[in-house]
Design goal:
- By secondary structure, the chain is of the alpha/beta class.
- The strands form 2 sheets. The protein has an 8-stranded parallel beta barrel. A two-stranded antiparallel sheet has the order 8-9.
- Strand 2, helix 2 and strand 3 form a beta-alpha-beta unit.
- The chain is globular.
- 46% of the residues are buried.
Length: 288
Protein backbone atom coordinates (compact mmCIF):
# COMPACT_ATOMS: atom_id res chain seq x y z
CA UNK A 1 0.00 0.00 0.00
CA UNK A 2 1.12 3.56 -0.70
CA UNK A 3 2.46 5.62 2.20
CA UNK A 4 4.15 8.99 2.41
CA UNK A 5 7.91 8.76 2.71
CA UNK A 6 7.91 11.33 5.54
CA UNK A 7 5.77 10.04 8.39
CA UNK A 8 4.74 6.81 6.64
CA UNK A 9 1.13 8.02 6.53
CA UNK A 10 -1.24 5.82 4.51
CA UNK A 11 -2.52 7.46 1.32
CA UNK A 12 -6.13 7.33 0.23
CA UNK A 13 -8.79 9.49 -1.40
CA UNK A 14 -12.13 11.18 -0.87
CA UNK A 15 -14.89 9.42 -2.77
CA UNK A 16 -16.58 11.41 -5.51
CA UNK A 17 -19.66 10.91 -7.65
CA UNK A 18 -20.32 9.26 -10.99
CA UNK A 19 -18.39 6.02 -11.43
CA UNK A 20 -17.27 6.25 -7.79
CA UNK A 21 -20.79 5.60 -6.49
CA UNK A 22 -20.32 1.85 -6.97
CA UNK A 23 -18.41 1.32 -3.72
CA UNK A 24 -17.48 -2.39 -4.12
CA UNK A 25 -16.04 -1.72 -7.58
CA UNK A 26 -14.34 1.46 -6.37
CA UNK A 27 -12.80 -0.32 -3.39
CA UNK A 28 -11.46 -3.07 -5.65
CA UNK A 29 -9.81 -0.50 -7.94
CA UNK A 30 -8.38 1.36 -4.95
CA UNK A 31 -6.76 -1.64 -3.28
CA UNK A 32 -5.40 -2.90 -6.60
CA UNK A 33 -3.65 0.45 -7.01
CA UNK A 34 -2.17 0.73 -3.54
CA UNK A 35 -4.74 3.06 -1.99
CA UNK A 36 -5.54 2.00 1.55
CA UNK A 37 -7.94 4.66 2.84
CA UNK A 38 -11.24 6.12 1.68
CA UNK A 39 -13.38 9.04 2.83
CA UNK A 40 -17.06 8.23 2.32
CA UNK A 41 -20.43 9.92 2.76
CA UNK A 42 -23.23 9.52 5.27
CA UNK A 43 -24.34 5.90 4.80
CA UNK A 44 -23.28 3.97 7.90
CA UNK A 45 -23.71 0.65 6.06
CA UNK A 46 -20.95 1.64 3.64
CA UNK A 47 -18.37 1.68 6.44
CA UNK A 48 -18.46 -2.12 6.59
CA UNK A 49 -18.42 -2.39 2.79
CA UNK A 50 -15.20 -0.38 2.64
CA UNK A 51 -13.57 -2.20 5.54
CA UNK A 52 -14.49 -5.64 4.21
CA UNK A 53 -12.81 -4.67 0.93
CA UNK A 54 -9.58 -3.92 2.80
CA UNK A 55 -9.86 -0.13 3.09
CA UNK A 56 -9.54 2.00 6.20
CA UNK A 57 -12.19 4.69 6.57
CA UNK A 58 -10.48 8.06 6.84
CA UNK A 59 -13.62 10.07 7.46
CA UNK A 60 -17.37 10.04 7.02
CA UNK A 61 -19.48 13.15 6.52
CA UNK A 62 -21.47 14.31 9.53
CA UNK A 63 -25.16 13.64 8.93
CA UNK A 64 -26.46 17.25 9.09
CA UNK A 65 -24.56 20.52 8.68
CA UNK A 66 -26.54 23.72 8.20
CA UNK A 67 -29.55 22.88 10.42
CA UNK A 68 -27.15 22.57 13.33
CA UNK A 69 -26.23 26.25 12.83
CA UNK A 70 -29.76 27.58 12.40
CA UNK A 71 -31.06 30.68 14.17
CA UNK A 72 -33.97 28.49 15.32
CA UNK A 73 -33.00 27.00 18.70
CA UNK A 74 -35.41 24.10 18.30
CA UNK A 75 -33.96 23.20 14.92
CA UNK A 76 -30.45 23.33 16.37
CA UNK A 77 -31.38 20.99 19.21
CA UNK A 78 -33.09 18.57 16.85
CA UNK A 79 -30.11 18.55 14.50
CA UNK A 80 -27.62 17.97 17.33
CA UNK A 81 -29.73 15.02 18.51
CA UNK A 82 -29.81 13.51 15.00
CA UNK A 83 -26.08 13.96 14.64
CA UNK A 84 -25.41 12.46 18.06
CA UNK A 85 -27.37 9.32 17.17
CA UNK A 86 -25.55 9.07 13.85
CA UNK A 87 -22.15 9.50 15.53
CA UNK A 88 -22.89 6.62 17.90
CA UNK A 89 -23.90 4.34 15.03
CA UNK A 90 -20.98 5.29 12.79
CA UNK A 91 -18.38 4.95 15.54
CA UNK A 92 -19.78 1.54 16.46
CA UNK A 93 -19.32 0.56 12.81
CA UNK A 94 -15.69 1.67 12.86
CA UNK A 95 -15.65 5.34 11.85
CA UNK A 96 -13.81 7.96 13.87
CA UNK A 97 -13.54 11.23 11.94
CA UNK A 98 -16.68 13.19 11.04
CA UNK A 99 -16.13 15.69 8.24
CA UNK A 100 -17.97 19.02 8.23
CA UNK A 101 -17.81 22.57 6.91
CA UNK A 102 -19.32 25.18 9.25
CA UNK A 103 -21.91 26.59 6.86
CA UNK A 104 -24.63 28.62 8.61
CA UNK A 105 -28.20 28.09 7.56
CA UNK A 106 -28.59 31.81 6.87
CA UNK A 107 -25.33 33.26 5.55
CA UNK A 108 -26.89 36.75 5.47
CA UNK A 109 -27.00 36.95 9.27
CA UNK A 110 -24.09 38.68 11.04
CA UNK A 111 -21.07 36.44 11.29
CA UNK A 112 -20.80 36.90 15.07
CA UNK A 113 -24.40 35.76 15.44
CA UNK A 114 -23.84 32.65 13.32
CA UNK A 115 -20.62 31.97 15.21
CA UNK A 116 -22.61 31.89 18.44
CA UNK A 117 -25.02 29.31 17.03
CA UNK A 118 -22.10 27.24 15.77
CA UNK A 119 -20.16 27.01 19.03
CA UNK A 120 -23.35 26.32 20.97
CA UNK A 121 -24.12 23.31 18.77
CA UNK A 122 -20.52 22.09 18.65
CA UNK A 123 -20.40 22.09 22.44
CA UNK A 124 -23.75 20.31 22.56
CA UNK A 125 -22.48 17.59 20.20
CA UNK A 126 -19.12 17.14 21.95
CA UNK A 127 -20.32 14.74 24.69
CA UNK A 128 -21.71 12.34 22.07
CA UNK A 129 -18.44 12.45 20.16
CA UNK A 130 -16.40 11.87 23.31
CA UNK A 131 -18.61 9.00 24.47
CA UNK A 132 -18.41 7.22 21.12
CA UNK A 133 -14.72 7.90 20.57
CA UNK A 134 -15.35 10.13 17.56
CA UNK A 135 -13.96 13.44 16.43
CA UNK A 136 -15.38 16.25 14.32
CA UNK A 137 -12.90 17.38 11.65
CA UNK A 138 -13.75 20.84 10.39
CA UNK A 139 -12.59 21.84 6.92
CA UNK A 140 -12.06 25.51 6.14
CA UNK A 141 -13.71 25.70 2.72
CA UNK A 142 -14.55 29.42 2.42
CA UNK A 143 -18.07 28.98 1.10
CA UNK A 144 -20.97 31.42 1.60
CA UNK A 145 -20.86 32.63 5.19
CA UNK A 146 -18.57 29.77 6.22
CA UNK A 147 -16.90 29.90 9.63
CA UNK A 148 -13.74 28.10 10.79
CA UNK A 149 -11.74 28.93 7.67
CA UNK A 150 -9.07 31.33 8.94
CA UNK A 151 -6.71 31.32 11.94
CA UNK A 152 -8.96 33.95 13.55
CA UNK A 153 -12.11 31.85 13.37
CA UNK A 154 -10.48 28.49 14.14
CA UNK A 155 -8.74 30.02 17.14
CA UNK A 156 -11.98 31.55 18.40
CA UNK A 157 -13.81 28.25 17.94
CA UNK A 158 -11.25 26.28 19.91
CA UNK A 159 -11.32 28.90 22.66
CA UNK A 160 -15.07 28.35 22.99
CA UNK A 161 -14.99 24.59 22.31
CA UNK A 162 -12.37 23.08 24.59
CA UNK A 163 -13.21 19.44 23.81
CA UNK A 164 -10.48 17.60 21.92
CA UNK A 165 -13.31 15.95 19.98
CA UNK A 166 -13.57 19.18 17.94
CA UNK A 167 -10.74 19.16 15.44
CA UNK A 168 -9.53 20.07 11.96
CA UNK A 169 -9.59 18.50 8.53
CA UNK A 170 -6.36 20.07 7.28
CA UNK A 171 -6.59 21.04 3.60
CA UNK A 172 -3.84 23.46 2.51
CA UNK A 173 -5.58 24.27 -0.78
CA UNK A 174 -8.21 26.45 0.89
CA UNK A 175 -5.61 28.30 2.94
CA UNK A 176 -3.50 29.06 -0.13
CA UNK A 177 -6.42 30.49 -2.11
CA UNK A 178 -7.17 32.81 0.82
CA UNK A 179 -3.56 33.99 1.08
CA UNK A 180 -2.94 32.17 4.38
CA UNK A 181 0.40 30.41 4.87
CA UNK A 182 -0.60 26.72 5.17
CA UNK A 183 2.61 25.73 6.96
CA UNK A 184 2.33 28.47 9.58
CA UNK A 185 -1.32 27.50 10.08
CA UNK A 186 -0.38 23.85 10.56
CA UNK A 187 2.32 24.68 13.09
CA UNK A 188 -0.21 26.65 15.16
CA UNK A 189 -3.08 24.17 14.98
CA UNK A 190 -1.41 20.78 14.46
CA UNK A 191 -2.60 19.45 17.82
CA UNK A 192 -6.18 19.71 16.53
CA UNK A 193 -5.59 18.03 13.17
CA UNK A 194 -7.52 14.77 12.91
CA UNK A 195 -7.49 14.22 9.16
CA UNK A 196 -5.63 15.55 6.12
CA UNK A 197 -6.74 16.15 2.55
CA UNK A 198 -4.19 15.87 -0.23
CA UNK A 199 -5.21 18.83 -2.34
CA UNK A 200 -3.26 21.83 -3.57
CA UNK A 201 -3.75 25.25 -5.16
CA UNK A 202 -1.89 26.82 -8.03
CA UNK A 203 -1.77 30.62 -7.89
CA UNK A 204 -0.75 32.60 -10.96
CA UNK A 205 1.26 35.70 -10.06
CA UNK A 206 0.48 37.20 -13.48
CA UNK A 207 -3.24 36.66 -12.96
CA UNK A 208 -3.09 38.12 -9.45
CA UNK A 209 -1.58 41.23 -11.05
CA UNK A 210 -4.15 41.23 -13.85
CA UNK A 211 -7.29 40.55 -11.81
CA UNK A 212 -6.36 41.01 -8.16
CA UNK A 213 -8.01 38.89 -5.49
CA UNK A 214 -11.15 40.84 -4.63
CA UNK A 215 -13.19 40.79 -7.86
CA UNK A 216 -13.96 38.23 -10.54
CA UNK A 217 -12.47 38.88 -13.97
CA UNK A 218 -14.68 40.73 -16.41
CA UNK A 219 -13.58 38.91 -19.56
CA UNK A 220 -11.68 35.78 -18.49
CA UNK A 221 -13.72 32.66 -17.80
CA UNK A 222 -12.68 31.01 -14.54
CA UNK A 223 -11.37 27.44 -14.78
CA UNK A 224 -13.25 24.54 -13.24
CA UNK A 225 -12.37 24.28 -9.55
CA UNK A 226 -10.86 27.74 -9.55
CA UNK A 227 -11.23 31.47 -10.07
CA UNK A 228 -9.48 34.26 -11.96
CA UNK A 229 -6.07 33.88 -10.34
CA UNK A 230 -6.08 30.43 -8.72
CA UNK A 231 -7.21 26.85 -9.23
CA UNK A 232 -7.31 23.70 -7.14
CA UNK A 233 -4.88 20.97 -8.18
CA UNK A 234 -3.57 17.58 -7.20
CA UNK A 235 -0.65 17.60 -4.74
CA UNK A 236 2.55 18.51 -6.53
CA UNK A 237 0.95 20.88 -9.01
CA UNK A 238 0.36 23.69 -6.52
CA UNK A 239 2.19 25.78 -3.97
CA UNK A 240 2.15 23.56 -0.87
CA UNK A 241 5.51 22.49 0.57
CA UNK A 242 4.45 18.90 1.15
CA UNK A 243 7.72 17.62 2.68
CA UNK A 244 7.52 20.42 5.27
CA UNK A 245 3.82 19.73 5.92
CA UNK A 246 4.42 16.02 6.39
CA UNK A 247 7.41 16.76 8.60
CA UNK A 248 5.30 18.90 10.94
CA UNK A 249 2.65 16.20 11.11
CA UNK A 250 5.26 13.54 11.84
CA UNK A 251 7.00 15.62 14.51
CA UNK A 252 3.73 16.20 16.32
CA UNK A 253 2.51 12.62 16.41
CA UNK A 254 -0.15 12.71 13.70
CA UNK A 255 -1.39 9.14 13.25
CA UNK A 256 -3.94 9.51 10.44
CA UNK A 257 -3.95 9.34 6.66
CA UNK A 258 -3.59 11.73 3.74
CA UNK A 259 -6.54 11.43 1.37
CA UNK A 260 -6.55 12.90 -2.14
CA UNK A 261 -9.55 15.15 -2.76
CA UNK A 262 -9.60 15.38 -6.54
CA UNK A 263 -10.67 18.81 -7.76
CA UNK A 264 -8.45 19.54 -10.74
CA UNK A 265 -9.55 20.63 -14.21
CA UNK A 266 -6.76 18.57 -15.75
CA UNK A 267 -8.31 15.33 -14.48
CA UNK A 268 -11.94 15.69 -13.39
CA UNK A 269 -14.80 14.89 -15.72
CA UNK A 270 -14.18 11.32 -16.85
CA UNK A 271 -13.55 7.98 -15.16
CA UNK A 272 -10.17 7.60 -16.84
CA UNK A 273 -9.12 11.14 -15.99
CA UNK A 274 -10.18 10.90 -12.36
CA UNK A 275 -8.39 7.61 -11.89
CA UNK A 276 -5.24 9.11 -13.37
CA UNK A 277 -5.57 12.21 -11.17
CA UNK A 278 -6.04 10.30 -7.93
CA UNK A 279 -3.12 8.02 -8.69
CA UNK A 280 -0.85 10.87 -9.84
CA UNK A 281 -1.51 12.73 -6.58
CA UNK A 282 -0.95 9.58 -4.54
CA UNK A 283 2.28 8.73 -6.32
CA UNK A 284 3.59 12.25 -5.73
CA UNK A 285 2.80 12.09 -2.02
CA UNK A 286 4.49 8.70 -1.73
CA UNK A 287 7.80 10.30 -2.71
CA UNK A 288 7.58 13.18 -0.24
Amino acid sequence: MLHTRTGNFPIGFRRGGGWQKDLPSLAKWATENGLGVIDIGRDVAEIAVAQNAGLQVGSVDLLEWQPMFSSDAGKRRESVAKNAEYVAQACAAGAKNFFIVILPEDAARPRKENFGYAVESLNALSPALEKAGGRLVIEGWPGPGALCCTPESYRATFKECASSAIGINYDPSHLLRMGIDPLRFLKEFVSRVGHVHGKDTEISADDVYEYGTEQPATFKESPAFGASAWRYTIPGAGGTDWPAVLGVLQSNGYAGAVCIELEDKDYNGSEDGEKRGILAGAQFLSTQ
